[in-house]
Amino acid sequence: MLISISLLDGSSDDLVSLRLWLIREDALRGRVMLPPAPPLAGTLGAVTDVLQISLPVGMAATLARAWTSWLRYGRRSAHLKATRPDGASFELYAERVKDMRPDDLRELSSRLSNFLEAVRETEDGDEIE
Known about the structure:
This protein is an alpha+beta fold and 129 residues long. The protein has helices at 12-22, 60-74, 102-117; strands at residues 2-7, 32-33, 50-54, 77-83, 89-95, 120-121, 127-128. It has a 5-stranded antiparallel beta sheet, covered by helices on one side. A two-stranded antiparallel ribbon has the order 6-7. The radius of gyration is 15 Å and the shape is globular.
């Protein structure tokens, strides 16, 4: 399953930071991509605005833990969106992320993991809920 993560505030540097954080996880290494965006007219190049993650079944909790860990240690605030192949999305807006209690971070990670696992791929590549 291909998951897209967009940063709704911040810069492309933040996406690079998130990618570098995620690939520290052995299970995610080689699965997190920064696809090139088409350049805008009149510009020298494109700015990447999305991460794509090839997420096998059963790895949602790993991604969710790594993502919330990045939020806790890398950001003061965050406005992000994860989108599944079926178009459903999970949007997160949080302030004072570094001050979040461990229980709140676990709850956030669990909600994200449940969202990502809601669609699973069948053996022939079709997705089911």
